[in-house]
Amino acid sequence: MSRLGLALTLAVTACTGELGTGGGGAAVPSGPGPGIPGQVPEAQDSCSDGARLPRVVRSLNAPQYENTIHAVLPAATLRDVFSISDRSGKFSTNGNIRRLDFNAVRYLMQNAEAGASTLTSSLPARFPCLTQTLDSACVRQFAIELGRELYQEPLQPAQLEKLVALFEQHEASDAKAAAELVVSALLSSPRFLFRKELGKPGAIAGTFDLTSHEIASAIAFTLTDAPADAELRALADTDALRDPTRVRNEVERTLAKTEGLRGVKSFIDQLLRARNFMSTEKSAEVFPSLDDVTRHALLADFNDTVELILRSAAPTLSELLTSRNVVVRPQSSALLGWSYPGGDGAGVPISMTEPGRMGLLTHPVVMATLSHQVETNPVARGHLVSDEILCITIPPPPQAVVFPERSEDGVPRTLRQTLEAQHSIDTCAGCHALMDPLGYPFEVFDAIGRLRTSDAGLPLDTSGTVPATGEIDGPVANVEELLTRVAGSNAARTCFVENTVKYVAGIDKGPASDCARDTLAPLFHQQQGNVRELMMTLLSSSVFLRRVEVQ
Where are the domains of the chain? Predict the structure, then answer.
């Protein structure tokens, strides 16, 4: 049997029945759990058992997978496995989107071998025995420590003995290759590739309270896109994360770390579709300056701008939607006609004075992503506001729908005029009335997000309408008025809570996400939409920490 086959066999046999599954087939860990001592008092959890978050097992997404391997084996060169499937759903944390087909499994195994091959070059300082006497004692030592970090909890004795036995079976022929085989097994194990939030039976019949190890993993992967740090691991190993106050303190500590907002930025990146920016096609003839270097600079600007706002004294949803503070680089400044204040080429914060430019929705990365190769796309831009910012339900379009082309009759028309003529017909009007009027104010930005004053030589009409939300509906004159009105609304805050719950819990919209939203939204309103506070409240609340079986 090949080394690859042996590793796969060990990975499967070592973990069968230990992870369990989400849903009705979940394996219930034996023994009663201690129950959650209390709940965060501000978040009044009134969710019925049928509307609680479910017990789940879900795959790591691309950054979580790569960051976890590199935390253990920093020299590993990895093949991309998950980034395509991460884009197949709204959020990459959703366990329902992952499909491990033949190629994905093959790449996972190749990565396992590639990571294992760096064992003696990556870890000699940590495990001196790797460069001395490579024997069973050495393998046992690094298997315990690497396994703890990769599996997010200590290895069980039976798991450890299987790994040591694997080494001993092949030690005589090549001790180094045998040790690498052990690491391959660790890196291809379902216990590494999947996160579990199954809990143990709680004090309330039919509920399951997350274990300290599951809580530590949830905090780390949600906030940092990486495994738990040493402090979280130590608390988990002593079962010290069953107190919501301690959990909240650890969330706050993690958020303050340099990498503490990495996962939050991933959430916002996915919410606003910015993750598709690099693959969005643009006409090289019309936009020759938008080369790969400039694209990378723009995307770095976007991510740095998100962090700038979230690290500020007012890390609120309103600031995300209306702040004029942005980070710029020389390449992006040149493309957009902005003034770069100077420096070594790194990102520099500036206060934007360009008309209409405010908040993340008007950032060139978002505007370019929600555009065609040459044309803008008011429909996509409006759909982002209605669907992701206001949570207005819009039916999916017909399969045969195509984006209208401008008439070739020689009469100049703006894109808005073209769309209004097409979308006013009865079969289109109902849905487009919920999207297009929210997208037209963004017509002030072209297909790569640059400010413009005309379209097809005609003046722009940037007026719009907020559809019936019961709170902020009515006409708006331009994009600034639209964003200001939306940013201060309870509708936008409630929608943001709903999306946060779906991202953090890895679920689709349903009774569970609705109940968690309704529990957390009032406090989010009271806190003026503070995003950092929302993360602390959600991850430490009984809404998140107490689960039920999916029926």
Answer: 1-30+56-197, 266-299+356-487
